[in-house]
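Hi everyone,

Forwarding the result from last night's run.
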Amino acid sequence: MQTVSKNILSHKHCIPCEGGVDPLKGEKLAEYTSILPEWIVMDKKKIEKDFVFKNFQQAVTFINKIADVAEAEGHHPDIFLHNWRKVKIMLTTHAIKGLSENDFILAAKVNKIYQEMMHH
């Protein structure tokens, strides 16, 4: 079985998912969650993570950057801005009612955006 790494994930692109494939589960799901352990798996159907910023404006900038990537990838997360400076990102693949590699690709890209913002 080919192993997946965080670097590879953030450089991959989402592929259109029309359904007809099984959601990730078992060992395969465990492999992806081990790459991105800070993303919490909810009901084996979605992953989510909270990001904290210095202020409201920085949180909004983060959301806009994610929106650009999500649009380019054709894979759109649920985004919640709460407590004025926290952003919760939730990912799932609606077409298969569960998690696909696309969710983890976008999660890795979101992590990268966050790291770049925090280190500049």
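The chain has a mean pLDDT of 92.

Cheers,
N.
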